[in-house]
Amino acid sequence: MNQTLEDTIIAVSTPAGHGGIGIVRLSGPEALAISRKIFSIKEPEPAVIPQKMCFGYLLDQESRETLDAGYLCYFPAPHSYTREEVVEIHLHGSPILLNEAVRLGIRAGARLAHPGEFTFRAYLNGRIDIIQAEAINDLIRACSLDQARISFKQMEGSLSRKIAGVREKIVELLTLVETRLEFPDEEIEINPGQVGQVLRELIGELGRLAGSYEQGRALLEGLTVAILGKTNVGKSTLFNALLEEERAIVTPYPGTTRDFIRENIQVDGVLIKLVDMAGFGQASHPVEEEGIIRGQRLAEKADGLLVVLDASREESPEDFELLERFNDKKKLLVFNKSDLKQVINRKKILDSCPGVDWIEVSALTGKNLDRLRKMMLDTFAPRLEKQEEILLHQRQKVLVDSIKGSLENGLKMLEDGAGEELVAEAIREALPAIGQLTGEIKSQEVLDQIFSRFCIGK
Ligand SMILES: Nc1nc2c(ncn2[C@@H]2O[C@H](COP(=O)(O)OP(=O)(O)OP(=O)(O)O)[C@@H](O)[C@H]2O)c(=O)[nH]1
Ligand SMILES: [Mg+2]
């Protein structure tokens, strides 16, 4: 990513495609001058009132042709997204027109922005840190409301403040220990018990934070829930019913589904990737056999399983085999076809897998499906503590673990009675990881990785 801030950059900031409005954005020292060359404001002059929509026309100065009518909005530095001079030109949402506006802007002296370059400038100019930049992209790409809520809070700085708090406490500890080192003869109150106490609290706090990544990952990527069971138990019917769409083929013949099908559903703001697959058991065809193998692999990696049983028939060895095979996975037992005469020996099944929650449903009539949705969340989704911060990125987790590791070293040395110098050195090692976490320490590779995930115009 280009780190010079002298250029004025321009890009379409609304998504590609046709829409009600489209916005072209400029940022940099010449943003206002360039935008005035391509957009003429109608009456009264001097027209540009900061942070107010000014009506006018998109203009090709060379041909003197007016191309569209719209609004210009000027955000003077530093009160803008990037902290630079920023201008937004709101036009009709026509890709042809918006690209033409960008072309005119480039002809007037701007340069096309790279993906994420507006946000990158906000970061370089100190308006946001890297955690907030990540949160902005997470917010834009949020695939559930819960995740959007968390990303919004982090964009506003909640996680950054928490990390700043940790940093402050570490620096205080260092000051305490190092002052003692510099002035060994003076009576400075330092109590190893107190240092240990602060270290233990910090380690606990960082441990909880790192632990939240499991929830974060589920939120960002969604939970994968695989529907499995013998052939013909009603997996595809259940899949369609949960999806509220006739997506998978359903027939009365066993072995209907041969490949797996994945579709997303939302349950209470959580994204669930639901997978329907071939029924377990004796394959009657090589294609089905391959489907079964793939299904098993997928089920092994899923966050949760819905094990479907046909309650209108007797239980069979395959049902038990299946439960045995996925013994250690999170699962729910779904006794399907509750609208028919119930034949299955439920007790025998439940006894074979103690502690596993179950429900009776009819995928055909829809009975109990809402309850099943809720149980899926309760059983498979990691608990969201509303107050706690949540890490959404592995990058963040790795660094929080590293900070915690340095403090644990320091604590161990303290407990082993090592000299203050060594304790201080171990604790100090936490600081670079904090710098990397917030982006205070810049790594080109990390920056490229983060900002290349952004869209152009953000
Ligand atoms: N009465 C009743 N019939 C059901 C129910 N759910 C599914 N069925 C019927 O059971 C048969 C098999 O349904 P599918 O959804 O294709 O079953 P499957 O488990 O996907 O089968 P395979 O893909 O072959 O493994 C169809 O005739 C469905 O209409 C239910 O809740 N009640
Ligand atoms: Mg099926």
Mean pLDDT: 91
The tally of strands reads 13
CATH architect. name of the largest domain: 3-Layer(aba) Sandwich
Largest sheet: 7 strands, mixed
The helix/strand class is alpha/beta
What percentage of residues falls in helices of 4 or more residues? 40-55%
Point out poorly predicted stretches: none
Report the top-level CATH class of the largest domain. Alpha Beta
Shape, per Cα inertia axes: flat
Taking all Cα atoms into account, the compactness measure Rg is: 29 Å
Task: State the CATH superfamily name of the largest domain.
Answer: P-loop containing nucleotide triphosphate hydrolases
CATH topology descriptor of the largest domain: Rossmann fold
Question: Could you tell me how far the N terminus lies from the C terminus, measured between alpha carbons in angstroms?
Answer: 14 Å
Physical arrangement of strands within the biggest beta sheet: 3-4-5-6-2-1-7
How are helices and strands ordered from N to C? EEHEEEEHEHHHHHHEHEEHEHEHEHHHHH
Number of domains: 3
